[in-house]
Task: structure prediction
Amino acid sequence: MVESRWFRRAGPAVAALAAVAVIASSTLGAPARTWVPDACSGAPRVGSSATGAWYRLDPFLDAGARVGQRLAVGRAGERGARQLDLDAESFAAGPVGGTILVGTDDGHRSRLSLVDVARACAWAVAESLDVIRTATLAPDGAKLFEYRVDRQTRADLGLWQRPLDGSTPPSRVLPPMVADARFGPTWLTDLIWSDDGQALAVQSCGEVACRVRVLDPSMGDVQLVADPDLGDLVGIAGDRLVAHGACRGLPCPLVSVDLRDGSTTVLDHAAGQAVLSRDDDGRPVVIHEVGAAGRTLRIVGPDGQRAEALDGDPDGRRLVAGPARSGGAAETAAGWILFAPDGRLPVDGAVRPVLRHVPDGRTVPFDEVSR
Result:
């Protein structure tokens, strides 16, 4: 185990960061508290079920440059949020079983910590002299997957895995992404688990277009999807990869790729935010906003079949998409989708987020999910 730099004491840059940018001091309707978590007891672990844990990550900017980030974490049904101040190169992932994986790099070393939201503590779980650009927990909570670059050259070092308990050293499971002029330099790397948790999508995005390697961690099989007409990934369901087109904004075409033969199906020519969910038969479905306004939704199978219209939120909330677009995530049960002001977990509490159960249309306040 390693000691995280933000356990028990504020980092040395916190005071300076506070003067750079002002971020609202409340989240989900109650004041957020600056927080330095105590160390959790025992071995690091995740819970066994969704608990309504959530996070939101906001940058500190100075003259347009990111100089730090503030992570707000909380749990549905609890008043207030806890805030952690992180380095400029930092990220969060999850939640999984009520825990959030947090990575931060101080320019010398990357450190990963696992925050138990309900217990209000954290474990230091990993560190590296390489830069860990992003990382994720396996759905069963047993392993960490890390994407690394060289600290001096920023050269791609590929995807690595290690057990959460630290019992064996990390090992590389994917090599660096090969350069491709059609995509340009990689600006963003994202790790997204498939709908069933069996495959890990490793997304490498240039300025607009993205490539995806789909890894089966149990077998080691890898499939590359490298179409310069594709942008950010929505998700993977079975043999279908769903992504936005290579656009600079929304609305944008929403495309499904058959991983068996590479054929593509346009699900919508001008979609807004989109997520994967489940219908009343438990089948994966894509739910997306129609056009830019988000007042109407559409539900469609990943293969383009069974399309039907859905009502948007009557109070004007937007569909909350994945962390790359929303800056945060909340842990919900299968078949539920989340709506929030502007598609992000709110910081002022004026309009609370709500959950809708896709199979029957039932809507409940997000604050009630863990009660």
In short: Helices lie at 14-20, 323-326.
